[in-house]
Amino acid sequence: MSNQQSLVVVGSVAIDWVITPEAERSESIGGAATFAAIAASYLSPVNLVGIVGDDFPQRSIEDLRRKRIDTSGLEVVPGGKTFRWKGRYHANMNQRDTLDTQLGVFETFDPKLPPRYADSGYLFLANIQPEVQLRVLEQMKAPRIVGLDTMNLWIDIARPQLEKVISRVGVLMINEEEARQLTGEHNLVKAARGVRKLGPKSVVIKRGEYGALLFHGDDVFSAPALPLEEVVDPTGAGDAFAGGFMGYLARGVEPHGEHLRTAMIYGSVLASYIVGGFSYDELIGLDLERIQSRFALFQRLTDFARADLA
Ligand code: AMP
Question: Is the pTM value of this prediction over 0.90?
Answer without folding.
Answer: yes
